[in-house]
């Protein structure tokens, strides 16, 4: 299942003009949720019936800040949504804000939850 999802996912990532488009593209190819480990960038994509695909992250691990900082996390999310930062800059910002991983749930009420030590921030995905 690995290549059956990862190859179309790369194309969706290249062509999506917003996170909402990216999320809808993932839904269209059967991804129900995914989790990103912020330090390593490793992503676990979950599909129906227990199927999954794992995408290895970047080489050097990011340092994760101490306790979760809600304000810094919210600012990082707003900046990337406004196109002010690249994905690597976004990952640096949420790492500094203490986000250890984030979970995107694409079924039911689509949402992203940013989770760190001592807190979390969640917002809906506008599809």
List the helices and strands and how they pair.
Blueprint: H1 2-15, H2 19-28, E1 31-37, E2 43-47, E3 52-55, H3 70-81, H4 87-96, E4 99-105, E5 111-116, E6 119-124
Antiparallel strand pairs: 1-2, 1-4, 2-3, 4-5, 5-6
Helix pairs in contact: 1-2, 3-4
What does this structure look like?
With 127 residues, the protein is an alpha+beta fold. It has a single domain, classed as 2-Layer Sandwich (YdfO-like fold). 36% of the residues lie in helices and 28% in strands. α1 packs antiparallel against α2 (19-28) and α3 packs antiparallel against α4. The mean pLDDT is 93.
How many DSSP helices? 4
Order of helices and strands: HHEEEHHEEE
What is the total number of structural domains? Answer: 1
Bulk shape: globular
Strand content: 25-35%
CATH topology: YdfO-like fold
Give the averaged pLDDT, no decimals.
Answer: 93
Q: Helicity, in percent? A: 25-40%
Radius of gyration of CA atoms, rounded to a whole number: 14 Å
The CATH class label is Alpha Beta
Number of strands: 6
Unreliable parts = none
Terminal residue distance: 26 Å
Strand order across the largest sheet = 3-2-1-4-5-6
Specify the structural class: alpha+beta
Largest sheet: 6 strands, antiparallel
- The CATH architecture comes to 2-Layer Sandwich
The CATH homologous superfamily is termed YdfO-like
